[in-house]
User: Which sequence fits this backbone?
């Protein structure tokens, strides 16, 4: 016996920003807009707003640009609420914009994402595993410490040329502490990867992460799916 196919009547497009989310709901021929904070309170408010507009949240198709900054956390939280989060892939979205005669810079707009969601019904996104999320957090922390070390190292010669020997010696001590922290983070990353064999390779391993890249095992994809 064939299963009945769910009839989708509502679609959401979300544009993400550091502080705010811009959501557009297409439902029953209506187009509704809402601006919310990009935090847990905002995600809950979005769910309440949808429910007040008689839109079932479970399985609701929501389109986002997951390559956009500040999109990872809301995508994960909305998926946890039961929504079907869909990643609007840049290449497919670019094709859609051309077919609609829209400029390229419209690709991040919530209205365009909602329209694309309804027209193309992109596949649902699979949230990354907790182990993958933790690995990315470790790598980001390592990157931040390495950035501070680079800045402090640049000041060493300045203090030495200025004859500020006390500051120079103090800064050398601080850099040694940062080096110790970097080694601790690298050791923790290696232990984490060993505990979770087969983790995908996060994008944070690219670029200047040659020292850490050797710790990565498994697939070389950048997603986390």
Assistant:
């Amino acid at each position: 016996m064939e299963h009945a196919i769910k009839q989708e009547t509502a679609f959401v497009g979300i544009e993400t920003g550091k502080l705010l989310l811009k959501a557009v709901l297409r439902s029953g021929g209506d187009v509704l807009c809402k601006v919310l904070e990009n935090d847990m309170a905002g995600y809950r408010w979005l769910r309440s707003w949808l429910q007040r507009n008689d839109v079932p949240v479970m399985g609701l198709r929501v389109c986002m640009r997951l390559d956009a900054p500040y999109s990872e956390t809301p995508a994960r939280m909305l998926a946890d609420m039961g929504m079907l989060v869909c990643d609007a892939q840049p290449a497919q979205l670019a094709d859609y914009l051309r077919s609609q005669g829209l400029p390229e810079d419209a690709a991040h707009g919530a209205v365009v994402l909602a329209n694309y969601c309804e027209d193309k019904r992109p596949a649902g996104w699979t949230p990354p595993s907790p182990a993958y999320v933790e690995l990315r957090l470790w790598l980001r922390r390592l990157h931040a410490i390495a950035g501070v070390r680079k800045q402090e190292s640049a000041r060493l010669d300045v203090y030495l040329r200025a004859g500020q020997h006390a500051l120079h010696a103090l800064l050398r001590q601080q850099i040694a502490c940062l080096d110790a922290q970097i080694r601790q983070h690298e050791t923790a990353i290696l232990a984490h990867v060993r505990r979770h064999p087969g983790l995908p390779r996060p994008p944070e391993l690219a670029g200047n992460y040659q020292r850490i890249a050797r710790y990565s095992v498994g697939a070389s994809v950048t997603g986390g799916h």
User: Anything to note?
Assistant: The beta strands are 10-16, 20-27, 30-37, 61-64, 84-87. The radius of gyration is 23 Å. The mean pLDDT is 85.
